[in-house]
Amino acid sequence: MRFLQLLLTLFFSVSFTAAWPWPRAVLDVGEFVQRRQDEQSPASSTVKSDTTKTSSSKPTATVTKSAASGSTFIRGSSATSASAAAESTGNTITATGKDASTAKHNSSTKTTQASSKITSVDPRLPAGGIEMLTPSAIAAASYYKIGDQVTFGWNYTSLVVPPSGIDVLVSCSANSATYTLSSNASVGPTGAVIWDTKLDATGSAPLLTETYTLVIHDASKDVTAVASAGYLGSYDQFTFGMYVPQQYTPLSDFVCATCSGALSDMERQTLKFLLGMSMITVLSFTWFVGGFGIV
């Protein structure tokens, strides 16, 4: 009986609530619920698209301009019109369709080339250097005969940013001359150069019997320039000697220009002093022994 009363009470309450006149503010629910915005930002202007009916093999090109960013986005297969639009506005091209890869390549090439020129190097690193391989850095002093071919080989150390080219020179302080072995040579893991000394044996500055210095430096910089960390510095630590060969002379015909068979004045005086001191010593010892009756 109580359950039936409860059920009737609930039925009348629901009927009364449904028939009750609700206020207008409660019925306007749309004012409290915002509609979903479109993906395009409010700052963008209305999209204007010109669609041309073509076959399925040639997709339509569509140009969309954004008022907020000022960029031009091109979609479609017309790579030529995409490139022209990008050049006129100076903005980046984004393309999709048949020739999308071409447009992307054109837009990214300039960025890649610009960024590849900038290399970050730790300033704590030392400057790049040269280590001699031929001849070895621990070998004895090297002497080469003028007229022969001389080979120099080296290795790069602490080189982070290789130069575009190097110059290999040989300098001599005796005649203030510099001989170019290689100019703007390419850079690899190791370097080598062969010097034909016959080409420089004669001329305005002929090779002398003197000491020479091997110089290797960045072709784009001066020899005296100070290298930054990771960049190649000038190398001038290897010295070697060169001499002019003489004609062969038989031993029987050889005459020493600085040699002499006679004794010099100093040698004769020394010999006389030694003989005199020997005579004095003998006579003094004989007189001493005879005077005291030792013998």
Describe this structure in words.
By secondary structure, the chain is α+β, with helices and mostly antiparallel strands. Helix content is 26%, strand content 22%. A five-stranded mixed beta sheet has the order 4-10-9-6-7, with no helix packed on it. The protein is elongated, with a radius of gyration of 49 Å.
Largest sheet data: 5 strands, mixed
Q: Provide the succession of SSEs.
A: HHEEHHEEEEEEEEH
User: Which value, in Å, is the CA radius of gyration?
Assistant: 49 Å
Strand order of the largest sheet: 4-10-9-6-7
- Count of helical stretches: 5
Mean pLDDT score: 73
**Helix-strand category:** alpha+beta
Work out the number of β strands: 10
Uncertain regions: pLDDT < 50 for 5+ in a row? 41-116
Instruction: Report the helical percentage.
Output: 25-40%
Strand content: 15-25%
Shape verdict: elongated
Distance between the termini: 173 Å
Brief sketch in words of this structure:
This protein has helices spanning 2-19, 24-27, 79-89, 100-116, 265-291, and strands spanning 62-65, 72-75, 129-134, 143-145, 149-157, 166-172, 177-185, 190-196, 211-218, 235-243. By secondary structure, the chain is an alpha+beta fold.
Features:
295 residues, alpha+beta
Topology (elements, then pairings):
Layout: H1 2-19, H2 24-27, E1 62-65, E2 72-75, H3 79-89, H4 100-116, E3 129-134, E4 143-145, E5 149-157, E6 166-172, E7 177-185, E8 190-196, E9 211-218, E10 235-243, H5 265-291
Parallel strand pairs: 4-10
Antiparallel strand pairs: 1-2, 3-5, 5-8, 6-7, 6-9, 9-10
